[in-house]
Amino acid sequence: SDTSAHYKRGAEKADGGSSGGRSGRSGGGLPGVSASGMGLRLSQKFVFLLFLSGLVTLCFGALFFLPDSVRLKRIFLSKTEIQPVTVGSGSENDVREHLKRPKEQGMTSAKGETGTKGKSLSRKPSVSHEATEERLAGGKAQEDLTLSRSKTESASERATSSDRGANSDTFSYQKFRGCLLKAPLGRDNGKPGDPQTNERREKVKEMMKFAWDNYKRYAWGKNELRPLTRNGHIGNIGASIIDSLDTLYIMGLMEEYNDAKEWVQTNLDLNSNGEASLFEVNIRYVGGLLSAYYLTGEELFKNKAMELGEKLLPAFNTPTGIPRGVINLGSGTIWSWGWASAGSSILAEFGTLHLEFVHLTELSNNPVYTEKVMNIRKLLNKIEKPHGLYPNFLSPVSGNWVQHHVSIGGLGDSFYEYLIKSYLMSDKTDDDAKRMYYGALEAIEANLVQKSPGGLTYMAEWRGGILDHKMGHLACFSGGMIGIGADDGAPEKRQHYLDLAAEITHTCHESYTPTKLGPEAFRFDGGAEATATRLSDRYYILRPEVIESYMYMWRLTHDPKYREWGWEAVEALEQHCRVESGFSGIRDVYTMTVSHDNMQQSFFLSETLKYLYLLFSDDDLLPLEDWVFNTEAHPLPIIRKSCLQDETTQDKTVSK
């Protein structure tokens, strides 16, 4: 706000100066009167020229020193010329997942209800509500599901056959499938042998269908559903649709998946003029479309992902190559969040692009995407890190840290997540990512990891050397992150990392009380033990991070407590968040008489329900040997370069 106020004052000063110049000239020469009679004295001319040169200097200074051209547009153009589309919001709480989270959306608001402004984009009407209601009433038989999926799978077969004549510069879907170690959906779609576990998995699937059906009935094409008022949240770019594509497919909800695919084909508009969060568009839209393509082979999703990826490239047009956080997808204009300190970029935003951009290079054979994210890495390796830590704010102009605030929760979180996942996704060949991740983890353990008086392990925040003994719900993803990285650090630290991951996941579970849902942030000072001490931290907006760690810890240890904790969360969601027309966040997790926030977040469909479904599925449904999940839970395949470049791979029979 200080920055925007500064530019506003600059504009007022410029306007005032030009106004003074006009009044000074208004007494000048009249027609037919000699210049000697009405001319300016030499001293007046000198003052006028001095003023004029100052005005010119001011104008040129504005052109060269304002951070980006959008500042000039905001000063000199009418407000109607810069309309927001609502792809990420401009409030600090909207940065995740960080920002992952409140993230209301990529092309929408950021994860949180407080998000945003928006100009709805026009779209064609899609499937009628009447037809939807008929389908809801009629249900569908299992053989219809099988037939629907077989039709979709025929698309991957078509993609496979079309690859046969492709040249070596074209991505081969057949080769990609041949390089997977296991079938993506497992032997029997991940169906568990234990009847109770299968019953719980079916319950999660029913929750997804209920959430989707109400979204389709009341908010189709909008970014998110408001279940209490039964209408859509701001924005017509279908965030809930893109975020749900892979979840619907994985769960076998094929009729719903096909409706979503039809909407993408006929209604997804990537040429919107307005404000879009680079981070949110990348993790939700690019990630969601890439995942849908890799699972189904539908060229539609690949083409949309590549088209959108190209539209994000102008965000990197800065002196350092560190992208700004906000972009107009139509014009390519970029700027920084108004609340970000001194026009800085956010670590969890510019550090959460690597997975998707590497895949864009794979699909397009265009190295520019990988070059952009590798340039970010080079700069981060070059600059000094305080105590080995990565602060949350970096100037895209100077390439220096702006503040020394370090957090594994909002503003920082997914940067660290993408380091270890970049290493895993590279088939463990990206040694730079490995070195950066374990170096950062060592610094985090030395400076941030704390033990409470009650014996709970948590990650504090670091503010210029002073610890703030607070942990956000967003930071609870770190249990799963540390778990999946346990095998690839120093061998003697493997068990230590698994223990640390389990301890952090346990701490986050302890914050889930008494409603069995957790607050936005909880503290460990003043006698508090994993408790929200401020009213403003007591809300729960259907966040996935704790359940995400349950899923990873189950896969890594098969300790049955993680499935029990997941089922506790399912029962709590049903009791406190399920309303007549969808699911809603709640404002206070410490009262059993809940007050709803009237928002069914798109990440509830993409992450929370997907992680629960995987928790109650066999490990061969999206096996971790083949897939990594982006920070919006969109599965992306491990890139096995040696296999993809092997000419004999093309001839392998893929029956997966």
Automatic annotation (TrEMBL):
Main localization, broad class: membrane
Keywords for the protein's UniProt record, in alphabetical order: Calcium, Disulfide bond, Glycosidase, Hydrolase, Membrane, Metal-binding, Signal-anchor, Transmembrane, Transmembrane helix
Residues bound to Ca(2+): T631
EC number: 3.2.1.-
GO molecular function, one term: mannosyl-oligosaccharide 1,2-alpha-mannosidase activity
SUPFAM superfamilies: Seven-hairpin glycosidases
GO CC terms: endoplasmic reticulum; extracellular exosome; Golgi membrane
Localization of this protein: Endomembrane system
Location of the active site: E280, D413, E520, E545
Disulfide topology: C476-C508
Comp. bias regions, Polar residues: 157-169
Ranges of biased composition (kind: Gly residues): 17-30
Catalytic function, reaction form: N(4)-(alpha-D-Man-(1->2)-alpha-D-Man-(1->2)-alpha-D-Man-(1->3)-[alpha-D-Man-(1->3)-[alpha-D-Man-(1->2)-alpha-D-Man-(1->6)]-alpha-D-Man-(1->6)]-beta-D-Man-(1->4)-beta-D-GlcNAc-(1->4)-beta-D-GlcNAc)-L-asparaginyl-[protein] (N-glucan mannose isomer 8A1,2,3B1,3) + 3 H2O = N(4)-(alpha-D-Man-(1->3)-[alpha-D-Man-(1->3)-[alpha-D-Man-(1->6)]-alpha-D-Man-(1->6)]-beta-D-Man-(1->4)-beta-D-GlcNAc-(1->4)-beta-D-GlcNAc)-L-asparaginyl-[protein] (N-glucan mannose isomer 5A1,2) + 3 beta-D-mannose; N(4)-(alpha-D-Man-(1->2)-alpha-D-Man-(1->2)-alpha-D-Man-(1->3)-[alpha-D-Man-(1->2)-alpha-D-Man-(1->3)-[alpha-D-Man-(1->2)-alpha-D-Man-(1->6)]-alpha-D-Man-(1->6)]-beta-D-Man-(1->4)-beta-D-GlcNAc-(1->4)-beta-D-GlcNAc)-L-asparaginyl-[protein] (N-glucan mannose isomer 9A1,2,3B1,2,3) + 4 H2O = N(4)-(alpha-D-Man-(1->3)-[alpha-D-Man-(1->3)-[alpha-D-Man-(1->6)]-alpha-D-Man-(1->6)]-beta-D-Man-(1->4)-beta-D-GlcNAc-(1->4)-beta-D-GlcNAc)-L-asparaginyl-[protein] (N-glucan mannose isomer 5A1,2) + 4 beta-D-mannose
EC class of the enzyme, as a word: hydrolase
Positions of region (Disordered): 1-30, 86-169
Pathway listed: Protein modification; protein glycosylation
TM annotation in the entry: 46-66
Membrane topology: Single-pass type II membrane protein
Source species, domain of life: Eukaryota
A matching Pfam family: Glyco_hydro_47
Cofactor or coenzyme needed: Ca(2+)
Record has Membrane as a keyword: yes
Entries under InterPro entries matching the protein: 6hp_glycosidase-like_sf, Glyco_hydro_47, Glycosyl_Hydrolase_47, Seven-hairpin_glycosidases
Family in the record: Belongs to the glycosyl hydrolase 47 family.
Function summary: Involved in the maturation of Asn-linked oligosaccharides. Progressively trim alpha-1,2-linked mannose residues from Man(9)GlcNAc(2) to produce Man(5)GlcNAc(2).
Name of the protein in its database record: alpha-1,2-Mannosidase
Source organism per UniProt: Amphiprion ocellaris (Clown anemonefish)
